[in-house]
Write a structure and sequence with these properties.
The protein has one domain: Pantoate--beta-alanine Ligase, Chain: A,domain 2 (2-Layer Sandwich), CATH 3.30.1300. It is built from 2 helices and 2 strands, in the order ααββ. A two-stranded antiparallel sheet has the order 1-2. β1 and β2 form a beta hairpin. The longest helix is centred in the middle third of the chain and has 52 residues. It starts with 10 loop residues before the first helix and ends in a 9-residue tail after the last strand.
Length: about 110
């Protein structure tokens, strides 16, 4: 006869816990990875909106579009030039701001 005097988990119980942790990790990790990219895109879109507003004020005051984002800072329309969190660059073409990163567009 066996006497159960040891305390602890059986191998089956330990395996079940490991499988459950694996399933949770498989679901959670991709969600966290996507949320970083989504937050960078949303931050960039916010920056684009702010710059576009500054372009409109610049055009109203000066009668023409600014050539660069730096011109908006120099003119006092922006305190600092916003930076894309993904490393993209902002450019102004025909009075419309754009980011060089794919998917970072104004209004989407």
């Amino acid at each position: 006869m066996f006497k159960k005097s040891q305390k602890g988990f059986t191998l089956i119980e330990a395996l079940i816990v490991i499988v459950i942790i694996g399933i949770i990790a498989a679901v959670a990790i991709p969600k966290f990875a996507n949320s970083k990219a989504d937050s960078e895109t949303k931050t960039c879109q916010g920056n684009l909106s702010i710059i576009q507003s500054a372009i409109a004020h610049y055009k109203f005051d000066n009668g023409s579009d600014p050539a660069t984002v730096a011109a908006l800072v120099t003119g006092g329309y922006l305190e600092v030039a916003p930076k894309c969190p993904s490393g993209g660059t902002y450019s102004i073409t025909s009075g419309v701001i754009a980011c060089s990163e794919t998917g970072h567009t104004l209004g989407t």
